[in-house]
Amino acid sequence: MIALVVGIVVLAMAGGAFVGITVTGIAGTEDRPAPRRASPAAPAHDRPGPVTADFVAIEKVPRVRAAPAPDGTLTAQCGSNEDGHYNSDNMIVTPGITNGAHHLHDYVGNTTTSAASTDRSLAAAPTTCRDRGDRSAYYWPVLRDLVDATKQARFPGEQESDRNVGLVLRPTASLVFSGNPFAPVVAPPQFLRVITGDAKAVTGGGRNAHARFTCRGFTDRVTTDRYPLCPDGRGLTRILEFPSCWDGRNTDSANHRTHVVFPDARGACRAGTVPIPKLTITLTYDVPVGASFAIDSFPDQRRAPLTDHADFVNVRTPASTDRLVDCLNAGRRC
Question: What's the domain range around 133?
Answer without folding.
Answer: 25-31+50-63+72-329
